[in-house]
Amino acid sequence: MSRKGNNTAGILAGLLAGAAAGVILGMLYAPEEGKETRKKIRTKANDLKDQAKNKYGEVSEKVKDQYDSISSTFKETANNVAHTVKDGYDKYKDQIVSKTTDMVKDVESGLNDLKN
């Protein structure tokens, strides 16, 4: 993942942790019974868990999309390079075969001239 993606994930984790700590501290200092406070903490914890799951889903979907895009671009570029190399090989192979054929004809002609 890119450095930007790591920073975003770190910031997201920090925000969620800070929100959870703030909610818990706020509830602990609120003037309510312990049973009610624990119930609120449990509810908020579940809410935060659901929010974290949703954010994780969003982030993982973005990462998957970016991976697919990069992968597709890489495959396309690799195919273009392969075709360019093959075309260059075919071009130079044909030139070499043509020049070699001309050289063979010249050598044969020279040998025939020497025989006569």
From TrEMBL:
Record InterPro entries: Desiccation-related_membrane, YtxH
Pfam families, per the entry: YtxH
Natural source organism: Chryseobacterium zhengzhouense
Keyword check for Transmembrane: yes
Segments passing through the bilayer: 12-30
Record keywords: Membrane, Transmembrane, Transmembrane helix
Keyword Transmembrane helix listed: yes
Origin: domain of life: Bacteria
Stated name of the protein: YtxH domain-containing protein
